[in-house]
Each structure stands twice: as structure tokens, then as C-alpha cells.
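Entry 14. Two folds queued back to back today. First construct below, sequence then C-alpha cells.
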Amino acid sequence: MHFAISIRIVVAASFAAGLVHAGKVGDAIVQNNCHNKVYLWSVGGSVGERQTLEPGDQYVEKLHYDDTSGGISIKITRTKNGLYDGSPQLNFQYALTDHLYYALSAVFGNPFSSDTLLVHPSVDTCNNICWVERDWTKAREQTETCSTNADITLVLCAESC
């Protein structure tokens, strides 16, 4: 929740200054390396259609600015209706202004608490986010920044960080 407040402030200030990025942008990618399918929804000012990722599948969306919410949260659950039934939910969040801000958070528990989660940007000078199995609570407030042309990839059930 801290991420949402921080991102709203950054986005509001950037929007007011005319800094919302309109050039070449990267992609947000979710790679399912888990042994089971997962479900995700892209949520900004509205909720996108549910996507099902089988083991080995990837979801890709072009990074974009949402003028209603200011940012996007790709919400991931292990249950088919997890967005609506209170299931543990992983949120892969980003906001696109003059920079790319990205973070992970979990609500109602972490559906991947016994797995390693890795967010790695395609630009080497930007920081990874890593949640190691059973140790994810320490990293809940980590928000990173990168250039807007970077791809950011969330690897579910990563082998390591």
C-alpha cells in the first residue's frame, strides 16, 4: 500500500510538470516457471481480462501510463477467481512517468511464499527485486526505478536471485 501512495505522489507531480513519458517504452513480462498454472489480471483504472499462464508460459504487456490510477498492478493468484475471492495475491506494480517505477507487494498473504520471485530489468544499471522463499516480508517496501525503455520481467518460481 505504501507503493501505491508513493507512486501516486510521483505520478501526480510528474503529470503536473508534463513529464509523463510518451517515447519508446519497454514491456512488463511475467514468466511462469512454477509447476502449476497461475492467473493474472492487469489492473489500472479498470480490470483487464483474466489471463491463464500454464507452466512455462509468459504474459507480456507494453508498459503504459494509466491516467485514471497513475499506475498498473498486474495481480497474480493461484486460484481461478483469486482476484475476487480473497485469495492471496501477488501484485507486480509499475508506474510510467519520466522514469519507470516498479515494485512487488502481496495482499491477503503471498501465494508464492514458498517460492523465489525475481524482478529483473533489461537494463544492467537498474536494480533487481528478489523475494526468497519464506523471507519475502523483509522486501515488501522495495520500489525501484529504471529508464522507461527497459523491460521488467517477473519470474515466478525463479531458481535463484
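Second construct, same run, same settings:
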Amino acid sequence: MKSDRFIIQTISVVICLFLIVYVSFHSVNLDSQPYQTEVALTYTISDSVEASGVIIREEQLISGQASGGVVSYQQSDGTVVREGSVIAEVYSSSSDISIRRQIRALEEQITALQKVSDARSAEYSSTETVNRQINSEIDDYIALVHQGQISGISENKNELLYLLSQKDVIMGETESYESRITQLQSEVDSLTSRLSGSLVQYTSPEIGYFARMTDGYESVLTPDSIETMTVEQIRNFSQEKVVFDNSTLGKIVTDHHWYYAAVLPKSDSEKFIVGDTVYLNFNMYNITQIPFTVEEVRTDDSDPDNCMVLMSTSHMVPELLMVRNPSVQIDFTSYTGLRIPAKAKRYEGQQVGVYVLDGDVVRFKTINIIYENSEFILCGANSDLERPLEIYDQVIVEGTDLSDGKPVG
């Protein structure tokens, strides 16, 4: 028992001696590093503000209603349409839609076969040329399927049918498709007799971007009306709940140039300069960094605490065609440089810079300040600087009696 107690006491003494030596060593080591430092690393900052507001566009409604019928849209939202393009078709019943689609598919086949039946269409063609065109159409078809572009598949399929039929004529495998055309036409006639009513088509009044949903603001929030609106009116519009209706068959955005009127605290107005470019982020819709030009900064007595900033862009975003009053994050110029603490900034004569630890010597390095606030500074590159700050430099944050070339310790 005495032997065990002696061993335990010996181990305890050894541990205590180790702790004393460990603490003493690190105390000396800390004393040998008299300066607090921070590594200079690359950092990016974007000055930004949050805002509510409204989207303003040149829009024209497509007049017409289903009136008890069934609507079949021929254009997708965001599609560019020409004046006179068929936007929607109204049928007497849903079964008519299916029948009409079958009729069109058959008519497209008839058109392709009639084109081939004319001997002149193949007279100047060669098998090699047609084979090359067929392979190209097959590649395009596969690409459309992979991309999910269903709208382009029908046109591609008809062109492929035409080329295959043309090849048959060139190689003498068939002289005419008249019997096949007659058969297809008979199917068209049979389907037509099954239609329960007439078809009504509605076309685009102008060239532009199509959207099927309307919200009632198309004639209220316009580039002309915004010129006379007060800050309070715009703020009220930005807070209203938008309700879509089906009183029309949709709308055409007739100009790719559109606006966003932002409502912000009046204290933020000085951040905006007319003519400057800012970047809007519609984060709710995962749409970011859309460049806008500041057109106007408006203040008035209707809302003394806020201001309105009108911004414009020519970057059309189809995903926003049916959005009216989204909140945004407005980014100003982004800055990227080496980040250092603001309190590390020093002067040697007329030169601004920082002191860094270079081994066991203090060195003064010059900096090019591109952004500065109360917490940190961003330093940009400048080839004219003598001995500039570099990435990974150990910047001295706190210390007294610093000078270039001073030994440490």
C-alpha cells in the first residue's frame, strides 16, 4: 500500500511540474509577440438597401372572353408574339379542342406530302443532301426532347416527315402520295363532322410579350401615369394585394423597356444618383443582378418620411410579366479587395498604409483604399504604389511606437 501511495504522489508531482513549465513557456511566447495581427484576405461587399415598390410597363389587354366556351391558349407566357398572331382559341366544348388538334396534325401531314408530290420538289435534290438534312433534323429532335421544348417538336416532326417522303421519291420507292393524301383528307372530314360548334380565334393586337394573367393595373400603372403620382400613392400600390382576374384573355407587354418604382426611407435618397446603374434582386423569384438606370428620385409632402426612386431597364424578364409589386434588394457598386481592420490604418509622412510583420521586422506597406467604413477597409490593387499590401500579409492591428524596419522583440 505504501508503494502504491508513493507512486501516486510521484505522478502528481510530475504533472504539476509539467503544467508549471507549459504555462511559463506560453507566457514567455506571448510576451515575445507584442503586436496583435490580422491576415489580409480578399473580401467582397455590395452596399445595398431593401425596398418595396411596383413594376410599370406598357401593356395592352387582349379583348375577348370565353363566354361559356373552353379556352385553348396557343402561346406560352413570356412568348414574343407578332401582331395578328393567334393567342387563344375558344371552343364550344373540351372535346372540340382534342378533335381540332387531331385535324391540325393531319393537315400538317397533308401539306408535307403535297409538297413532295410535286415532282419539281425532288428534281434538283440528291440522296446525299436529303440524308444530311434528315440526320440534322433527327439531332434537333433529340435535343428538343432533352431540353423539354415541346412547342418545337411538332414543327421538327413535320419537316422530318417531308424529308423522308422526299427521299422515297428520289429513290423511286414511290411515285406519288395521292392515295395517302386522300386517306388523310378523309380522316380530316370525318373529324370535322364531329365538331360541336364553331371556333373563335383571338389574335395579338401588337407585337410584344404575351402573358395570360391580368391584374387590373395595366391601365393604371403606366409610364405616363407614374409621372404625376405622389410618393404616398406609389407606396399604397406597393402594399396592395394583387388579385388576378379572367375578365380578358391576357395582355401584351408592348415595350421591352420597363420600370420599377421603389419606395424607401427618405434617408436613403442620397444613395441614388440620376444616371447611375444599380442592380435589382427579385429574391422571391430567384432573379438577381438585373441592371437598372436611376431615372428620378422623388420626394413630396404626401409622405414626408419616404421617397420614390424610379428606375428603368431594357432587360426583359419573362418570369416577371405577371408580377406587379414585388419587394427587391437594390445593390449599388460592388467592391472587392484586401480587407483590413479600420484601426490598422496608419500614416508615414503623406503615405497611407499599414504596418505588417515581416518575419521579425515591422514593415510599412502602402494601401489603395476603395471602400471604408467604421469597421474595416477594402484595399484595391494599384501598380503605382510602392511596396503595396499583399494577400496573406500579417497586418498589425494594435501596437505603439511602430516604424518601418523596427525589429520585433
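Quick look at the second one. Residues 93-197 form one domain. Helices lie at 2-31, 94-117, 120-123, 127-147, 153-170, 178-192, 231-239.
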